[in-house]
TrEMBL record:
InterPro entries: ATPase_Atu1862_pred, HerA-like, HerA_central, P-loop_NTPase. SUPFAM superfamilies: P-loop containing nucleoside triphosphate hydrolases. It comes from the Bacteria. GO terms for molecular function: ATP binding. This is ATP-binding protein. PANTHER family: HELICASE MJ1565-RELATED. Residues 7-108 form the Helicase HerA central domain. It holds the Pfam family DUF87. It comes from Magnetospirillum sulfuroxidans. Keywords: ATP-binding, Nucleotide-binding.
Length: 502
């Protein structure tokens, strides 16, 4: 069944429709400067398609929360949840086919990127049984897929850009249809924008943005000037879900209103000058005065006088040495009780630590080292990753000191960082002649909640000759590590037990 939703009208007064099923397979890019009607277009698209397909909106300004009352969208306040919780919420959203709005307005830019990446990752990593069709609308996409590094950390930018790339490049097979909107094409990562096959280009004035818009629409550079002449709410449409040739359309009306400021002119209130003076400089009856963010500056003379008044009188000469000796902290009789391995195990004891990035875990590790009186910086980031992989693999101190395990670490050092934890987990089970780890345990070592990703990783490792996998007649799996000459005992690959051996 073909579902055509009405987006507005053409210049000839004919209804301009969008093929919803074609959109699910080809994705959409919306571009327009501030005030061009870009958010109005997204709202029209969401409202018209709400009854036909599940939706998720990534909303950095909290403008689309008004959809909840009339169209039943559930508003998820990202500021009230951790990244791990948002991943779980996103998985439940797909499982139960609930349309949601992820409200990011109460977060600063870097946390918006991290939380959006976690939510998109949860939508992406859900099991195949829940790959239902879904529109994923991302407003202000240049924030989440920037073309260049900005003021945010590289880790946040990479996580957000990776999630957006997955949505636009690999989301179609998982039922995810990305709809991204941006004010500036020049600020949007090219590999994300290039995956869209449908375009709605609104008013823009900068030459670089007009040039990129013309390129995406297959127009000549001299035709790019037309984007300056577009009115508010007018867009040039092109794509298999819209039109085979560039078509000018005007977006229709919407049923809900946003929470953004109204740009209409309003007359100023008529107040006599004396009343206006009192309104500004005198507090109202019910007004709560906010404390000053910082104390008023003090001149040098006042500061010296205050220091002199609070300085205690000098002690008698004979008491100075005795007081210093008494005040000196006692020197510890022995070194710190905890070792670096103990601190690392303490950090990884948090069930959510395995799903956090290594950089975040490393910062937590350094803080705990200072609490225990240990110099954590003696373990740099690369060495920390290797040691963390060993701890996640459940290697005890006795095994870690053996020459056999040194050989396993040498082999793992030549592998990529995402494979090392899984290789060491399998090597530890093979060394101890333990049961083969389940898919859930392998996914956890990889930092994922999806057992299906564990299967893909095992296939990759077997293709590289790192392991040899075998399934017996009872469905139990055995994995051998040829480089070490070790082999696990049979284990149930579908076991739900994800507890790691300490």
């Amino acid at each position: 069944m073909t579902v055509a939703i009405e987006m507005g009208t053409t210049q000839a007064g004919i209804a301009a429709t969008l093929d919803l099923e074609e959109l699910l397979a080809t994705r959409l890019l919306v571009q327009g400067n501030s005030g061009s009607g870009k958010s109005h277009l997204l709202r029209r698209l969401v409202e018209q398609s709400a009854q036909w397909v599940q939706q998720a909106l990534i909303d950095p300004e909290g403008d689309f929360v008004t959809l909840a009352e009339q169209f039943g969208h559930v508003v998820v306040d990202a500021a009230a949840h951790t990244e791990a919780a948002l991943q779980q919420i996103a998985a439940r959203v797909r499982m139960h086919r609930v349309s949601v709005v992820l409200n990011l307005e109460n977060l600063e830019t870097e946390r918006q990127m991290r939380h959006a990446a976690a939510f998109l990752g949860g939508l992406f990593d859900v099991d195949r049984d829940y790959w239902f069709p879904m529109l994923v609308v991302v407003d202000e996409a240049q924030l989440f897929a920037p073309a260049a590094a900005g003021e945010v950390s590289d880790e946040a930018r990479k996580a957000s850009l990776g999630a957006m790339t997955n949505l636009m490049c690999r989301g179609r097979k998982r039922g995810l249809a990305g709809i991204i909107a941006t004010q500036r094409l020049a600020k949007l990562a090219k590999n994300v924008a290039a995956e869209a096959s449908n375009f709605l280009m609104g008013r823009t004035f900068l030459d670089i943005d007009m040039s990129r818009a013309a390129d995406l629409l297959g127009m000549e550079r001299r035709q790019a000037e037309m984007f300056r002449d577009l009115n508010r709410g007018q867009f040039i449409a092109l794509g298999p879900a819209l039109s085979r040739r560039p078509l000018s359309i005007r977006i229709g009306d919407v049923a809900t209103d946003g929470r953004t400021g109204n740009a209409r002119l309003l007359p100023l209130p008529e107040k006599p000058p004396e009343d206006a003076h009192d309104l500004i400089f005198k507090a109202g009856e019910n007004e709560v005065l906010r404390p000053a963010s910082r104390p008023a500056p003090m001149d040098t003379a006042q500061l010296l006088a205050q220091l002199a008044a609070t300085r205690p009188p000098p002690p008698p000469p004979g008491e100075t040495l005795a007081r210093e000796v008494a005040a000196a902290p006692p020197r510890p009789a022995e070194g710190p009780k905890a070792s670096i391995d103990d601190v690392l195990r303490e950090v990884l004891a948090d069930p959510e630590a395995v799903y956090r990035s290594p950089a975040q875990v490393y910062q937590d590790f350094l803080v705990r080292c200072r609490q225990h009186g240990i110099h954590g910086r003696s373990l740099d980031m690369s060495a920390f990753r290797r040691k963390m992989a060993s701890v996640r693999a459940g290697v005890d101190a006795e095994t870690a000191d053996t020459p056999e395990w040194d050989q396993a670490l040498t082999v793992a050092a030549a592998l990529s960082e995402d494979i090392q934890p899984v290789f060491l987990l399998l090597a530890r089970a093979a060394h101890d002649q333990a049961a083969c780890p389940s898919n859930a345990q392998i996914a956890r070592a990889r930092g994922s909640r999806s057992p299906r990703r564990a299967l893909g990783l095992l296939e990759h490792m077997e293709g590289q000759g790192l392991i040899v996998s075998d399934i017996d007649a009872y469905g139990n799996r055995t994995i051998a590590v040829p480089a070490l000459g070790w082999q696990t005992q049979p284990g149930n690959p579908d076991s739900e037990d994800v507890d790691e051996v300490a």
